[in-house]
Amino acid sequence: MKKIAVFVDVQNIYYTTRDAFSKQFNYRLLWQELMAQGDITVANAYAIQRSDDQQHKFQKALKHIGFEVKLKPFIQRRDGSAKGDWDVGITIDIMEAAADVDTVILLSGDGDFDLLLRKVREKYGVSTEVYSVEQLTAKSLIDATDVHHKIEQSLLL
Question: Which residue numbers delimit the NYN domain (predicted)?
């Protein structure tokens, strides 16, 4: 049976599906689709820790589905902007998991991950898949992955 590792850039998926469709991503449906393809051995969702009930409910729902939710503190800068970047954490976790799985699946449209996907395919021979909103995804990321799944209405709530 195919071993699958899934990594979700929660902020990226939240904002891109909201901006493109004014809807939320259906993580439960994704989980069911992936379970049908193989054994999910790693499933990490990377989020920002905020103290609001909506976030807590969402994170609880992700855990209930089967994701390990990794949280980073929400940092408000003096200029009002916010920071909560998981790129390095996601990269480290993917590099560590890639040796033990057949497929690495990334949910993000962030072009910074293109090099990572090329590297794990080259070094570990894994296949890579990306789920993202096509018009809000870096072309370099789409070009770097074996399979690009467009997030469309069917994967939204």
Answer: 3-151
The model carries a pTM of 0.94
What is the pLDDT at residue 49? 86
| Contacts for 156 with CB less than 8 Å, ≥ 6 apart | 17, 21, 23, 24, 25, 26
SS3 content of the chain, % helix, strand, coil (to 5): 50, 30, 25
- Closest CA relative to residue 128, chosen from 147, 141, 142: 147
Number of H helices, E strands in the chain: 6, 8
Return the CATH class of domain 3-155.
Answer: alpha beta
Within 10 Å of residue 122's Cβ, how many Cβ atoms?
A: 9
Distance CA 26, CA 46 (A): 16
- Residue in this structure with the two tokens 């997030």, named with its chain if needed: 151
Task: Decide if pLDDT at 120 tops 90.
Answer: yes
